[in-house]
Specification:
Layout (H helix, E strand, L loop, with lengths): L18 H15 L6 E7 L5 E7 L2 E3 L2 E7 L3 H8 L2 E8 L4 E11 L2 H10 L2 H9 L9 H14 L11 E6 L3 E6 L7 E6 L8 E4 L3
Antiparallel strand pairs: 1-2, 1-5, 3-4, 4-7, 5-6, 6-7, 6-8, 8-9, 9-10
Helix pairs in contact: 4-5
């Protein structure tokens, strides 16, 4: 039985000194049971008009520095993060009846880090990053397909470089909440908080 509170045991979540370590332990268990993409997470931002927005993205890395995802900086999410560089993340693993919420400032990764990850993507995905004017109106599917064909021909015999507008962001957590389902909705909630990324974490339990 897991020492971090399995979905069927009656013990609470056992805190670890480092919440990222606890997150990776939960993610590893989720990867073993989730049918599709245990690294999927909702990303919440606020746009230039102050309106909230949320969408699903994929986590591509998590360590002491933060939680990383990649996308088009000219997309709605990219423009929102430029206007208000803070974000909230939510992981929900239904099969385990667990969730993790993360909140903190978001900063772009370095060009070197974006280049390194872009190089690992399938070539079709790399070409798609050039062909898609993400989040902007599309006159018809044929327009997109024509762009794909254009860039597929352009890079048919060469490596595909990273588009200058394609990058990543790192959300530095200042608050991480671990949630676990309990019978009769008496859920277990453990929160790690800190005022700044250089400060130590403190933990607290919350009423469900």
């Amino acid at each position: 039985m897991s020492d971090i509170g399995g979905p069927l045991d009656d013990g609470g979540i056992n805190p670890k000194p480092d919440p990222v370590e606890l997150f990776h332990a939960w993610l590893k268990e989720a990867e073993a049971v989730e049918v599709n993409e245990a690294n999927a997470m909702s990303l919440a931002t606020v746009d230039a008009d102050g309106l909230p927005d949320v969408r699903m993205v994929l986590l591509k890395g998590a360590d002491a520095r933060g939680f990383v995802f990649f996308s088009n900086a000219q997309s709605n999410k990219g423009r929102a993060l430029a206007a208000h560089p803070q974000a909230a993340l939510n992981f929900h693993w239904k099969s385990l009846r667990r969730a993790v919420r993360v909140r903190g400032p978001a900063v772009q990764v370095s060009d070197e880090e974006a280049d390194a990850y872009f190089a690992t993507r399938a070539k079709d995905s790399q070409i798609g990053a050039w062909a898609s004017a993400q989040s902007r109106p599309m006159e018809g599917r044929f327009v997109f397909e024509a762009e794909i064909a254009k860039y597929a021909a352009k890079y048919a015999l060469t490596k595909v470089p990273r588009p200058p507008y394609w990058t990543g962001w790192r959300v530095t957590p200042l608050r991480i909440e671990f949630w676990r389902d309990r019978p009769f909705r008496l859920h277990d909630r453990l929160v790690y908080v800190r005022a700044h990324e250089d400060e130590p974490w403190s933990t607290q339990r919350l009423f469900p």
